[in-house]
Amino acid sequence: MSLLFKNIIRFLLIMFIQIFMLNKIPPLHQFIVPSFYFVFILWLPFKIGRTALLFIGFATGMVVDMFFKTPGLHAAACVLIAFARPSLINLLLPKEATDWGNEEPTKKTMGSLPYTTYLIILTLLHHFYLILLEWMQFGSFLYFISKLVATSLVSLLLILIADLFFNRKSRLR
Amino acid sequence: MRNVFLFLKRYSVLIIFLVLQGLALSMLFSYNRFHQTTYGIFSNEVAGSLNKRVNKVESFFTLSEQNQALRKQNAALLSYLPSGSVSPDTSFLVVSDTIAVDSLKSYRQYQYFDAKIISNSVFLQQNYIVLHRGSVQGIVSNMAVVGTDGLIGTVISVSENMAIVMSLLHRQSKVIAVLKKGSGLGEVTWDGKDPRFLVLSKVPKTIVVKKGDTVVSSPYSDKFPPGIPIGYVEKIDQDQETNTYKLKIRTAVDFYAVQHAYIVKNLLQEEIDQLKSTAIKE
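YS: structure for the whole thing
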């Protein structure tokens, strides 16, 4: 399966799960919205260019926004994590990110600790920006902090489950 | 000039990042004010057609509840039929005749359009409902939307076959309401916490409110038909700062399971708008 084809399938699958399943389940609590669609950006191959990454992030966010009726909200957060991703990978890994070729960030390719740090930082960043934008329109500071923590924990749990479920093997090792 | 190009090349990623951020944020902050954007209409049709397919499957799961609600409403409507009422006295005869209506000079003010809900959300801060009715079927924005049990929201944006409704569960939703037993004009908003409860504020403390009182749409609105249930009083809070109550009310409509709605067209709306605009001009 070619890399492009694989990622298109993955994109459709993730969007389907996010929009038609996670959005439909009854709320766990008054402000927890289970979201994990941004994991698509986190799982893109290492070699992808910075500019391309930004545009992919923007498109991913816009698709989600189309169904949430919040044009720009998720797109802004996705563009932010797409911008932060390459720098963070360079920081966490010894080698230059482009040297990794077609491989994707997984537990195996990055090692458990760097991979977990990578997930946690980008999840927090995504939710921080998303909830900050929402908070600017309404809400109190306590609401902001508690929603950030609660939503991030749920998202991380979902990503861990998805990691097991998708069973992404690194082929080049 | 060369330096400019070098600068652009050096910081191209940052510039693209900032441009995309600006684009996204400007869309976000202008959307609430201008619903009729091209993006809105386009995404409305695309997302709507997808939602419609998924909704077909979904609606199976709530079929029995929907049936029950419809049966209940049918029963209520049937009881209004003239054949259902018996005259208490032989000297008194109920005549249900069109002539009687004409001579009384009463005419229809509200027309109801049936619509299927194809997408709905309850857990966001700004909840919208998408209906499978649009401008082709004569829907325009600012029409009221009611369900079988009570008020749902207001149409805010219309494309050819879809309409987007701002539900009562929206941070910017504001509906004038009264207590069914009489006085008590107030404002129904949502605090964004629990989709089962709304807030009725600005009700003066001089009015006696009891738990379980019905809150209905006010007769002073030109959009909502009067007397449509909005909710039932659940908890009574005194607003310390002002001389008003802050009532927590349970929604009349079950927003989790709502599947059908009626769009209400005020046939006098044009006349009202015209009158208002001339009054403001003068």
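YS: worth flagging: The interface with chain B takes residues 20, 23-24, 26-27, 30-31, 33, 50-51, 54-55, 57-58, 61, 65-73, 75-76, 79-80, 83, 133-134, 137-139 of chain A (CB under 8 Å).
IM: good catch. Also Residues 46-166 of chain A form one domain.
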